[in-house]
Amino acid sequence: MNDALGSVQSILILGGGSDIALATAHAMVARRCRTVVLAGRDPEAFSGAAKELTKAGASTVERVSFDALDHASHAEFVRGTFDRERDIDLALVAFGVLGDQEQAEHDGAEAIRILDSNFLGAVSVLVPLVEAMKRQGHGTIVVLSSVAGERARRSNFVYGASKAGLDAYCQGLGDSLVGTGVRLMIVRPGFVHSKMTDGLAAAPLATDPQHVADTIITGLGRGSEIVWAPGSLRFVMSALRHVPRVVFRRLPL
Ligand SMILES: NC(=O)c1ccc[n+]([C@@H]2O[C@H](COP(=O)([O-])OP(=O)(O)OC[C@H]3O[C@@H](n4cnc5c(N)ncnc54)[C@H](OP(=O)(O)O)[C@@H]3O)[C@@H](O)[C@H]2O)c1
Questions:
Q1: Which residues contact 115 (CB under 8 A, 6 or more apart)?
Q2: Does ligand 1 come within 6 angstroms of the Cβ of 191?
Q3: Which residue puts its alpha carbon closest to atom 40 of ligand 1?
Q4: Measured between alpha carbons, how far is residue 51 from residues 9, 56, 214, 237 in Å?
């Protein structure tokens, strides 16, 4: 339960190794969050991150197994997590893959892997997560969407489609939660320097995980429903959304 000053005390991170998620976890711990659950495919790999979070002030850092592609395990995963922790104030849906666009254009399995990891896997775990938060009567869900879902680009339309699906789902889900005590915030980062983009040429307005974490903290404080990182992307995208396709496809995006 959020403490008397409204600070989040417990956070569940789906995609516990994500650079953006770990920067956010540190920002939360600096603001008195005491319990962090890092969930991902290889929980052993989170031991360094767990030590760092403990050193920063977290009293409990749990590492648990979670695979977004294993839909059948999601209901039990959520039940087990809420049974153990009793209370989760905030869940951060941070898992995702960029995938190989070129391969995905010729290999349906790669296209499906991207869509499943970023969209279907998220929906699959969001359904029981929302139910669990509604039962506890409070909670916030933060979902990492992407600016790539705003308008499909030739260079990464499979990833863009997966984020467009996730974003649309979360817009409707957020609306459905009004009045339940549970709320959802969508985060739309542009290019972020992280493991996901390692080795790629940075896009204009590139940021880092710390900037996205700060944006999340500010958005939560303001009760925002959608935040952009950086914030200027909101205005850039509202212009780009209306550029004719024949022009848009020629832009170096
Ligand atoms: N970096 C960017 O430019 C950018 C921009 C916009 C949005 N985003 C979104 O922000 C989120 C975090 O990205 P990031 O930049 O922090 O990248 P990251 O450091 O590569 O984190 C992505 C995480 O997703 C996990 N993951 C992938 N598939 C999974 C699965 N099937 N089950 C469970 N976990 C899985 C990865 O775990 P493994 O170690 O097991 O692979 C990794 O920890 C993603 O949703 C991404 O799409 C990123």
A1: 158, 161, 162, 165
A2: yes
A3: 41
A4: 18, 9, 22, 39
Which residue do the tokens 């780009």 mark? Answer: 240
User: Residue 15 and residue 21: Cα distance in Å, rounded?
Assistant: 8
In terms of Cα–Cα distance, which of 226, 232, 237, 238 is closest to 143?
226
d(CA 108, CA 49): 35
pLDDT tens-digit readout, 12-63: 999 999 999 999 999 999 999 999 999 999 999 999 999 999 999 999 999 9
Residue 169 annotated among the catalytic residues of the structure: no
CA-to-CA separations, 202 to 191, 193, 241, in angstroms, rounded: 7, 8, 21
Q: How far is CA 110 from CA 97, 113, 122, 146, in A?
A: 11, 5, 17, 19
Distance CA 117, CA 146 (A): 14
- Dist CA 146 CA 156 (whole Å): 12
Q: Tens digit of pLDDT for each residue in 68-104?
A: 999 999 999 999 999 998 899 999 999 999 999 999 9
Nearest to 65 by CA among 83, 45, 48, 84: 45
Interaxial angle between packed helices 209-222 and 19-29, expressed in degrees from 0 to 180 and rounded to the nearest 10: 50
Q: Is the pTM of this model over 0.90?
A: yes
Residue 86 DSSP code: S
Q: Say whether domain 10-248 belongs to CATH 3.40.50.720.
A: yes
- Residue 180 alpha carbon to ligand 1 centre in Å: 29
